[in-house]
Amino acid sequence: MHGGVDRGIEREEYGMKVLVAYASRHGSTRGIAERVAEVLAAAGQSVESRAVEDVDDLAGYDAFVIGGAVYMFHWLKPMSRFLRRNREVLAERPVWLFSSGPLGTEMTDAQGRDVLEVSGAKEAEEVEAAIHPCGHRMFFGAYSTGKPVGLMERFVARMPAARDAMPEGDFRDWDAIEAWAGDIARELEGSAASDAPRP
Q: Residue 11 and residue 43: Cα distance in Å, rounded?
């Protein structure tokens, strides 16, 4: 799936159709979403992976994994709009959220705080209160210098001294991402099994 066109991944169904939706600027968050979709599909779920901008109707899905890139402590606008527009539906079904953003290899900041814990989107608390997700994880992201997008990237491009704030590289922890997706797969399987008709 990497770098290709979004598509559904067909496997034997346990009765759950899952949408993995994402808001990504350069492709890092999309890559995380696609890996999550692959793990869920390998576990037997029926999965589709799509950009949030390409999702018009949630009626056909039983569960959701939704991820967005975080820049300057805010989700990308398409992510926030998607969650706000669909919050009533999402509040009624199993939802897992993930965010990506921190760059680098340091697990703590200069104040000794956990980088993943302090790098979240400011909107997350309000969203979690509205839809009550089953979980929300923050993952390290990736950044490659290229055509700058957004205020921060333009600033970094013009001010080499600011590049420490956005180091180049791929810092995604694929083991952690796959383990989290595996946990979701097991929860979905258990939920589907509990909803199955009794003989």
A: 8
